[in-house]
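User: structure tokens for DNA-3-methyladenine glycosylase II, please.
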Amino acid sequence: MYALGVFVMKVSSLTEIVLPSNYHTSGFLAFHQRDEMGISEIVQQNQIKKGIMWHDNPALLTITIEENRAKLQLDIDGDKSRYSHEALLDLVSHMLGLKQPVEKFETIYQDHPVIGELITRQKGLRIYQSATPFEALSWAIMGQQISLSAAISIRRRFIQAIGIQHSSELLCHPTYKQVIQCSEHDLRQCGFSVGKANALLSVSRLIDSGELELAIPEEEDAVNRLVDNLLAIKGIGMWTINYALLRGFNHLNGSLHGDVAVRRNLQYLLKQEDKVSAEQAETWLAHFSPWKALVGAHLWQQQSSSGY
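Assistant: Done. Predicted tokens:
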């Protein structure tokens, strides 16, 4: 499905980012450790190695966290002319969730009668991000209405089938440019349903044509336009969009009211005998706009030992 080119140049850059003193390193690493086979990400102790595409070239991103510092290294196979120190810092700051103003959120809600204690106990919690919005949306499409283990298997087979390999032997998550070279049959062979295959192909073709842009929106109006554009694609609904916004766009105002863990933990906090319905959770979370997703993440994390 993808012909691996011959790369003759390699650039390695080393830099670091200072982290908040209460940064949840274990949660960040757990988010990237879902696939135990480690074909495109390897997490060991305090380090992650991840295969990514850097301006159409396979690259190995290494993030090592030590003493509240994230040390970054990028090894690019091929053309190094488009390497940018600022772009690397921006990418990793995004992945680490450092663009999220959680300190402001905590200041506002640390004394809240229902969630104040939870927020104080989990201070510093962030929503860790996929490397790109396209990766987050791809994962959300794969994960629709199936178990986590099944989604991980499909993702693994998808990455293996397209087969973009860095010289380290780690595979890189495909971009839309590789996906548009695939057929529905190719994706079906990876475990996609017909609907999911066509949804991912539609997204990739719309990006390629310029009709869809997966830029990270700064204003709520831009978020709403992106939501409308994605909803117009057959096979993509609000669950998929909300998850993609949560994990790829640093969007903290999506509602996680449909999540079972969020509702279960909200029931516990509200000291309610009856189960919390999705409708009740949605109404309750609405009071926390524009932080609904972050409140949901705190509820999600409350009984989780492996990140959310």
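User: Anything notable?

Assistant: The two ends are 32 Å apart (CA to CA).
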